[in-house]
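Thread title: Can someone regenerate the structure for this chain?

I was given the following input by a collaborator and told the matching C-alpha coordinates would be attached. They weren't. Posting the sequence so someone can regenerate them.
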Amino acid sequence: MNQQKIGEFLRQLRNENTLTQEQLAEQIRVSRRTISRWETGSNLPDLSILIELADFYGVDLRELLDGERKSEKMNKELEETVRKAANYSNEDKQKLKKRLHILFVVGLAAFIIYLAMNVLGIANKTPVYEGVSGFSLGISFGMMIVGVIMTSRYASKIQAFKMKILQHKKTQ
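Best answer:
Regenerated them for you:
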Protein backbone atom coordinates (compact mmCIF):
# COMPACT_ATOMS: atom_id res chain seq x y z
CA MET A 1 0.00 0.00 0.00
CA ASN A 2 1.24 3.43 -0.92
CA GLN A 3 0.33 5.75 1.96
CA GLN A 4 1.15 8.87 -0.05
CA LYS A 5 -1.14 7.79 -2.88
CA ILE A 6 -3.94 6.93 -0.47
CA GLY A 7 -3.48 10.30 1.26
CA GLU A 8 -3.68 12.17 -2.05
CA PHE A 9 -6.82 10.23 -2.98
CA LEU A 10 -8.43 11.05 0.37
CA ARG A 11 -7.63 14.74 -0.20
CA GLN A 12 -9.07 14.54 -3.71
CA LEU A 13 -12.30 12.96 -2.43
CA ARG A 14 -12.64 15.58 0.29
CA ASN A 15 -12.12 18.40 -2.20
CA GLU A 16 -14.62 16.85 -4.65
CA ASN A 17 -17.18 17.01 -1.85
CA THR A 18 -16.18 20.64 -1.13
CA LEU A 19 -15.36 19.89 2.49
CA THR A 20 -12.69 21.41 4.66
CA GLN A 21 -10.56 19.19 6.84
CA GLU A 22 -12.44 20.59 9.85
CA GLN A 23 -15.84 19.72 8.35
CA LEU A 24 -14.77 16.17 7.49
CA ALA A 25 -13.24 15.74 10.95
CA GLU A 26 -16.59 16.66 12.52
CA GLN A 27 -18.43 14.22 10.25
CA ILE A 28 -16.32 11.21 11.21
CA ARG A 29 -15.51 12.29 14.79
CA VAL A 30 -11.74 12.72 14.57
CA SER A 31 -9.49 15.76 14.86
CA ARG A 32 -8.59 18.02 11.94
CA ARG A 33 -4.96 17.14 12.57
CA THR A 34 -5.78 13.45 12.05
CA ILE A 35 -7.33 14.27 8.65
CA SER A 36 -4.20 16.23 7.76
CA ARG A 37 -1.96 13.29 8.70
CA TRP A 38 -4.03 10.94 6.53
CA GLU A 39 -3.89 13.30 3.57
CA THR A 40 -0.13 13.80 3.82
CA GLY A 41 0.36 10.04 4.01
CA SER A 42 2.06 10.07 7.40
CA ASN A 43 -0.75 7.92 8.91
CA LEU A 44 -3.60 5.78 7.66
CA PRO A 45 -7.10 5.51 9.12
CA ASP A 46 -8.12 2.38 11.04
CA LEU A 47 -10.04 -0.22 9.05
CA SER A 48 -13.37 0.74 10.61
CA ILE A 49 -12.79 4.39 9.66
CA LEU A 50 -11.74 3.40 6.13
CA ILE A 51 -15.07 1.61 5.76
CA GLU A 52 -16.88 4.68 7.08
CA LEU A 53 -14.97 6.92 4.64
CA ALA A 54 -15.79 4.61 1.72
CA ASP A 55 -19.48 4.80 2.61
CA PHE A 56 -19.29 8.55 3.18
CA TYR A 57 -17.64 9.24 -0.20
CA GLY A 58 -19.57 6.54 -2.05
CA VAL A 59 -16.47 4.71 -3.25
CA ASP A 60 -15.35 1.11 -2.95
CA LEU A 61 -13.04 0.18 -0.11
CA ARG A 62 -10.61 -1.25 -2.68
CA GLU A 63 -10.44 2.16 -4.33
CA LEU A 64 -9.48 3.76 -1.02
CA LEU A 65 -6.83 1.11 -0.35
CA ASP A 66 -5.41 1.46 -3.87
CA GLY A 67 -5.57 5.25 -3.76
CA GLU A 68 -7.37 5.52 -7.12
CA ARG A 69 -10.75 5.03 -8.73
CA LYS A 70 -11.55 1.69 -10.36
CA SER A 71 -13.92 1.28 -13.26
CA GLU A 72 -15.34 -2.06 -12.08
CA LYS A 73 -17.41 -2.47 -8.94
CA MET A 74 -15.87 -4.17 -5.93
CA ASN A 75 -16.86 -7.73 -5.25
CA LYS A 76 -19.61 -7.52 -2.61
CA GLU A 77 -18.39 -10.68 -0.90
CA LEU A 78 -14.97 -9.13 -0.37
CA GLU A 79 -16.55 -5.97 1.02
CA GLU A 80 -18.70 -8.05 3.37
CA THR A 81 -15.62 -9.98 4.53
CA VAL A 82 -13.79 -6.75 5.30
CA ARG A 83 -16.81 -5.48 7.23
CA LYS A 84 -16.96 -8.71 9.22
CA ALA A 85 -13.25 -8.42 10.01
CA ALA A 86 -13.76 -4.85 11.23
CA ASN A 87 -16.73 -5.93 13.38
CA TYR A 88 -14.73 -8.85 14.77
CA SER A 89 -11.91 -6.47 15.67
CA ASN A 90 -14.36 -4.16 17.43
CA GLU A 91 -15.96 -7.10 19.28
CA ASP A 92 -12.52 -8.22 20.47
CA LYS A 93 -11.81 -4.74 21.78
CA GLN A 94 -15.14 -4.67 23.61
CA LYS A 95 -14.46 -8.08 25.21
CA LEU A 96 -11.04 -6.92 26.39
CA LYS A 97 -12.52 -3.71 27.75
CA LYS A 98 -15.15 -5.67 29.69
CA ARG A 99 -12.52 -8.03 31.14
CA LEU A 100 -10.35 -5.11 32.21
CA HIS A 101 -13.34 -3.44 33.82
CA ILE A 102 -14.07 -6.59 35.84
CA LEU A 103 -10.41 -6.82 36.91
CA PHE A 104 -10.38 -3.21 38.06
CA VAL A 105 -13.64 -3.65 40.00
CA VAL A 106 -12.28 -6.77 41.75
CA GLY A 107 -9.05 -4.93 42.55
CA LEU A 108 -10.94 -1.94 43.90
CA ALA A 109 -13.18 -4.16 46.04
CA ALA A 110 -10.14 -5.97 47.46
CA PHE A 111 -8.47 -2.66 48.25
CA ILE A 112 -11.61 -1.38 50.00
CA ILE A 113 -11.64 -4.54 52.16
CA TYR A 114 -7.98 -4.01 53.02
CA LEU A 115 -8.56 -0.34 53.83
CA ALA A 116 -11.65 -1.05 55.94
CA MET A 117 -9.82 -3.68 57.97
CA ASN A 118 -6.94 -1.29 58.66
CA VAL A 119 -9.17 1.67 59.47
CA LEU A 120 -11.21 -0.45 61.87
CA GLY A 121 -8.00 -1.77 63.39
CA ILE A 122 -8.85 -5.45 62.92
CA ALA A 123 -6.25 -6.26 60.27
CA ASN A 124 -3.70 -7.54 62.80
CA LYS A 125 -5.97 -8.84 65.59
CA THR A 126 -5.90 -12.53 64.57
CA PRO A 127 -3.92 -14.56 62.05
CA VAL A 128 -7.11 -15.03 59.98
CA TYR A 129 -7.77 -11.29 59.77
CA GLU A 130 -4.12 -10.68 58.99
CA GLY A 131 -4.31 -13.24 56.18
CA VAL A 132 -7.49 -11.71 54.73
CA SER A 133 -5.94 -8.25 54.90
CA GLY A 134 -2.73 -9.39 53.20
CA PHE A 135 -4.68 -11.35 50.59
CA SER A 136 -6.86 -8.32 49.81
CA LEU A 137 -3.83 -6.09 49.42
CA GLY A 138 -2.14 -8.66 47.19
CA ILE A 139 -5.23 -9.01 44.97
CA SER A 140 -5.61 -5.24 44.57
CA PHE A 141 -1.91 -4.81 43.79
CA GLY A 142 -1.99 -7.72 41.33
CA MET A 143 -5.04 -6.28 39.54
CA MET A 144 -3.26 -2.93 39.21
CA ILE A 145 -0.25 -4.61 37.63
CA VAL A 146 -2.44 -6.61 35.23
CA GLY A 147 -4.38 -3.45 34.33
CA VAL A 148 -1.22 -1.49 33.61
CA ILE A 149 0.20 -4.28 31.47
CA MET A 150 -3.05 -4.86 29.55
CA THR A 151 -3.50 -1.18 28.78
CA SER A 152 0.11 -0.71 27.68
CA ARG A 153 1.43 -0.92 24.16
CA TYR A 154 2.84 -4.36 24.95
CA ALA A 155 -0.59 -5.98 25.41
CA SER A 156 -0.76 -7.21 21.81
CA LYS A 157 2.74 -8.70 22.06
CA ILE A 158 1.79 -10.49 25.27
CA GLN A 159 -1.41 -11.79 23.64
CA ALA A 160 0.55 -13.06 20.60
CA PHE A 161 3.07 -14.79 22.89
CA LYS A 162 0.23 -16.39 24.86
CA MET A 163 -1.38 -17.68 21.66
CA LYS A 164 1.98 -19.04 20.49
CA ILE A 165 2.39 -20.97 23.76
CA LEU A 166 -1.16 -22.31 23.57
CA GLN A 167 -0.63 -23.44 19.97
CA HIS A 168 2.63 -25.13 20.97
CA LYS A 169 0.87 -27.03 23.78
CA LYS A 170 -1.87 -28.21 21.38
CA THR A 171 0.67 -29.72 18.99
CA GLN A 172 2.35 -31.73 21.74
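The radius of gyration is 25 Å.
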